[in-house]
Amino acid sequence: MIGTAPRTTTAGVGPVGGALPAARTRPLPAAAVRLGASGLLGRWQERNAAATLPHCLDALETSGALDNLRRLLDPADPDHHAGPYRGFNFADSDVHKTLEAVAWESARAGAPRHEDEVRRVVDLLRRVQAPSGYLDSHVLGSDGTDGSAGAAPSPEPYADLRWGHELYVLGHLAQAGVARARATGQDDLLDVALAWADDVVARLAAGEELVCGHPEVESALVELYRESGDPAYREAARRMLELRGHGRLGSGPFEPAYHQDATPVRDADEVAGHAVRQLYLLAGVVDLYLETGEEALLAAAAAQWDDAHGRRTYVTGGMGSRHKDESFGDPFELPPDRAYAESCAGVASVLWDWRMLLATGEARYADSLEHALLNVVAAATSTDGTAFFYSNPLQVRTGHDGADEYQASGRRGWFACACCPPNLARLVATLHTMVATRDADDGALAVHLYADADLDADLEADLGAGTAAGDVVRLAMRTGYPWDGDVVLTADAPSPVPLALRLPGWADVARTRLDVDGEPVDVAAALDARGYLRVGAGARRVRLSLPMEPRAIGAHPHVDAVRGCVALARGPVVHCLEQVDHPGVVLEDVTLDLAAGLEVGPADDALGVGATLVGTGRATPSEGLPLYRDVNIDATPDDAPVEATDLQVRAVPYAVWGNRGEGPMRVWIPAAASLRPGDRRRSGR
Amino acid sequence: MIGTAPRTTTAGVGPVGGALPAARTRPLPAAAVRLGASGLLGRWQERNAAATLPHCLDALETSGALDNLRRLLDPADPDHHAGPYRGFNFADSDVHKTLEAVAWESARAGAPRHEDEVRRVVDLLRRVQAPSGYLDSHVLGSDGTDGSAGAAPSPEPYADLRWGHELYVLGHLAQAGVARARATGQDDLLDVALAWADDVVARLAAGEELVCGHPEVESALVELYRESGDPAYREAARRMLELRGHGRLGSGPFEPAYHQDATPVRDADEVAGHAVRQLYLLAGVVDLYLETGEEALLAAAAAQWDDAHGRRTYVTGGMGSRHKDESFGDPFELPPDRAYAESCAGVASVLWDWRMLLATGEARYADSLEHALLNVVAAATSTDGTAFFYSNPLQVRTGHDGADEYQASGRRGWFACACCPPNLARLVATLHTMVATRDADDGALAVHLYADADLDADLEADLGAGTAAGDVVRLAMRTGYPWDGDVVLTADAPSPVPLALRLPGWADVARTRLDVDGEPVDVAAALDARGYLRVGAGARRVRLSLPMEPRAIGAHPHVDAVRGCVALARGPVVHCLEQVDHPGVVLEDVTLDLAAGLEVGPADDALGVGATLVGTGRATPSEGLPLYRDVNIDATPDDAPVEATDLQVRAVPYAVWGNRGEGPMRVWIPAAASLRPGDRRRSGR
Questions:
Q1: Is A563 on the interface with B (CB under 8 A)?
Q2: Roughly how many angstroms between the first and final C-alpha of chain A, as a whole number?
Q3: What is the DSSP code string of A255-310?
Q4: How far is Cα B522 from Cα B509, in angstroms, rounded to an integer?
Q5: What is the DSSP string of B442-458?
Q6: In DSSP terms, which residues pair with A604 in a beta bridge?
Q7: Cβ contacts of B48 within 8 Å, gap of 6 or more
């Protein structure tokens, strides 16, 4: 029986744990990397622990998510809650994601956190779990007449696979159980999840075609396999992936593509439909690849990754342009103002990138991971850690109506659909596990994220193959990255394994410097085909200097929405203009004078950023201009007389926008040179 | 009692009938203008009669809209329908709008059309009408458990004012009843509407706060007042307008602004929320002004008109940019690809413009009316009259997913929410009534729409003030407009009243010519403050020559979505590029060489257009370009090497796009000069 299979619990393992037979590079033990509290990532984790997690735990009470479970208790029970179900029908997942976040934070801290609260919740879950193992409070508590936001009443399990979200809830419960087992060695929550999962596995075995309208459980089932060693969970994931893509879920109000049910997963070569669903699904596809090595799975995922990143990703790393159905839009449909770019899509994109990186070892996936992390994902949380964006636009105009929480001008403490905050919390609690991995082929230690961190990897305990017995790597990584391009890695003894340092895609090879034990290295020669700078075993001190000049980024000409504009970046950090930094002018009237150059501006301690950007621009008043006007065909389309005010343009990291009150913001800035080709100041070039 | 008030039925009157005491210019009798079958507007009406109306009548059967009424009959009745309710909860309005369209078409034709079918439907409505007069089949047929698309089950009338649409349905029923009475003299349908309206009036009098989540009934009540002479209907409209704007409707899933319930109608100075609702509401506001002369109403409507047309209207006349909630977006948020621009919003915009024109006599409202009519409204229907767009994008990209009917790549025969087709039909059947009006001050005949038409206005029968007894104007208007700029008006006798000819806003005064009885007239001197060229009484032959050179249109710099692009127009007709006219290149790779000029191209008989536009462009292959790339800060943001193919660009009227198969289309075209300022072919200018 599944439930009695020998458990190979691996306390100390992080997300995507286990042997990962098909991986090109493998996670280190979760405790191998500790981020320093002075660096950006370390501070983020500290804030997550100190502010975001307690905030989420509080919200589980105030939102009704826990009461939704308590109402299933016997009315005589003192903990019974008598009120109606509250929130969306998948509100249980807010509980589970928060429990997962607490677990990973406990692992990071090296000691249980919020343990009393967690035990109470686990106990509550145990008490309301159906004898079958089923545990979705919306369905269990329904008498067939009470709807909830987002779904019709449905007293029978799995009666509404398209919208019921029950397997999605199971997935998050399973992720939480796995995290708690790995973080604390406690199997209590895992057992709750396994009881439900076993019923699902049995139903699949009996021929029930269980496939969820919101993918998530696929990854979770693979994690259950990793945790339990029982291949039934892996095969359940495979079965669910194979059931999908044939229209079984039906349609209404959205087409099958919304649920990734229009194309079989192995045949898909474009991302489609609801972005978060698509991205979770792809994470699950790669999870299955990591266990099975089935090339068709990785090939489909890679093709979709190329499509997503080549045609449907915002310059901030955001995905899913459309508000209407929270979907990926058409190719190159990337409006900055109407960017939906849900925070959860940012999280899911990172989870997918991480699995692609493990599967391939290729730097571009780590580039993307870092890019999404430091831009769209970081922006989703306020500097104090307790307010969040649901959607992440790249432009807010003067006069924006931000009344709706899905297009809010400012971050909010919680949401009717509260998927994002605990999702952010669970990801941030695991950031340290993404800093470095071990390559499967030669055992090299690959460093993906540059941060103030200490690595202490006892390679004997490493789960990867190719580890020499007794290998230990202790590295101190010191850097002010991403504000500073210098990264110094110091080993306490000559490294017994090679090192592989990611060369970010934005870094010009010719302007990158690498010193190993004081000797400069030919960077181009050190660069391997996967995008990493290779340093042979035996090194003690490595200094990587990345070029941190400000950059202006242009978009593919089919991205009509940003024609004639540039985005500003430095290193991996995308910047934006905020109205608050440009008093006296209308932000939409500002154009950037690219030819005047860009400088690195001072740090902003209040915003917690180590650098800003400064440039030269002009504000050309447009008030009173007609909405449309004839242009002189013999001239250029933007030949209005220029009565511009020169001004200094200040750009701050997109990650911290909206922390100084609400107001206009934009990532893509009209570039003066392209806007006004007839302007004498620009002509003759 | 209201129902027994003396009826002042005015057979022969068109929409917005009656004395209109506050009007600056008043409609002619509906039969005063007959559009010639050779002109664009006349052909449109003929197609509407021959193809669109029969199509709509058929669809009332196939969609279930009539069966929704028949299921209310006694089960023993042979006409009883036993099936469930079908469609959205306001599907009755499809019936009523179709009846209205048939009525106006009957008036236009001078004889009843589809009279047997109409009588059967009227009889059906009578038989299922509740004793109270209430007549919403979704509510009457509900047992409290059956939902319909769009609303929860609601067996009690007015239990769900926010989503119930019952008063909206009443409004369309009333419009149909009024149209039938005016067109045919038959009061049967009007009596059905009055019975329901009387109950609503009584409820309002009893203190019930009836205000509908979807405005429409306000205009209808004013029309009932005009038709019946009973001020109770006018006051009911006033009461409903005053109830609105105080949050009575509540919220969910959308904010009060969605329903125009956030701001009192007299205080509103911006359009907001669901576009069709907002536009119908504003038509109702101006209807009430036309009866009461209350300046606050007109001032609020005018401010909102300026906002809508100055910041939130597509160059095609489309309104309501957002798919998510079908709303006006933020100011200048006008993405061409994600333009929702619902066909019904185009219709409603015309209805609002028409009332603004009557209230003020100002040409800009007629300009807007004509512009919306000939572009977004015209585009909504296929050249064969039997397929329709629900939304009207200004760009369809290569790879567009048009599976959803709200963002379809091609027109469809009918819709789950079928508001648009009968709405288009009822408007088109009244186009002739918008050609000309009588000015209230001096009785001048004001010509707003240029078309092949015959005017035969017996001014004694005119409802307007200021008419000299015995005045008759018989004018033949001959023109190939909008394909040709020459308009010749010939009277059979010297006109007893002055003429006022609209000078379209796009027409340069200096290039416009006007001849009266063979003598050239100083156009600038003839132009009055309202935008009309005044011709004194006594003229027999007037020739207006409008400048029809192709024009390139640029947008306000805050319309970020079309930066660096131009739209092409000739006269009032906006054009677009279609892939089918540009074989061998990717449409999104095409830029227009503005400096090479634009020429008038040949007519296209298959498309039914009298002219096209031809220009010179280049196709620059972009395949393989990265989504984002660093641009050289010392150069321009679009300095990629140019490997362009020169090509002839062909633009067809937007009104006929999508009639030659599905494929990419765009209204806004990147202009080469602004796109590539560093290109040597453009530099040195």
A1: yes
A2: 76
A3: -GGGGT-SS-TTT--S--SBHHHHHHHHHHHHHHHHHH--HHHHHHHHHHHHHHHH
A4: 10
A5: T--EEE-S--SEEEEEE
A6: A609
A7: B101, B105, B385, B424, B425, B428, B429
pLDDT tens-digit map of B291-341: 999 999 999 999 999 999 999 999 999 999 999 999 999 999 999 999 999
pLDDT of the residue at A435: 98
Chain B 179-238, residues with CB within 8 Å of chain A CB atoms: none
User: At CA A112, angle to CA A109 and CA A116, rounded to 5?
Assistant: 145
Considering only CB atoms, which chain B residues are within 8 Å of A554? 628-631, 637-638
Cα B472 from Cα B187, distance rounded (Å):
30
Closest CA to B310 of B269, B345, B280: B269
End-to-end CA distance of chain B: 76
Taking only the tens place, the pLDDT of each residue in A317-370 is: 999 999 999 999 999 999 999 999 999 999 999 999 999 999 999 999 999 999
Tell me what the mean pLDDT of segment A636-645 comes to. Answer: 60
- Residue B582 has which token pair? 């540009």
pTM (global) more than 0.90: yes
Contact A558, A331 (CB under 8 A): yes
Between chains, do B335 and A629 touch, taking CB under 8 Å as contact? no
CA dihedral B35, B37, B38, B41 (to 10 degrees): 50
Q: What angle separates helix B217-228 from helix B231-243, to the nearest 10 degrees?
A: 160
DSSP type of residue A412? B
Q: What percent of chain A has pLDDT over 70?
A: 91
Name chain B contacts of A397, Cβ cutoff 8 Å: 330-333, 558
Q: A621 — contact with chain B (CB < 8 Å)? A: no
Mutate to test the interface with A, among B330, B394, B613 (most CBs of A within 10 A): B330
Name the residue with tokens 């007449």.
A145
Q: Are B433 and B15 in contact (CB under 8 A)?
A: yes
Decide if A459 contacts A438 (C-beta within 8 A): yes
pLDDT, chain A, mean? 92
Report residue B90 CA to chain centroid gap.
20
Q: Across the interface, do A556 and B638 touch by the CB < 8 Å criterion?
A: no
CA proximity to A173, closest of A241, A126, A239: A126
A620 reaches B (C-beta below 8 A): yes
**pLDDT surpassing 80 at residue A455:** yes
Q: Which two tokens stand for residue B557?
A: 């710099």
User: Which token pair is B284?
Assistant: 């109702």
B552 to A668: CB separation less than 8 angstroms, yes or no: no
Place of tokens 């109606």: A84
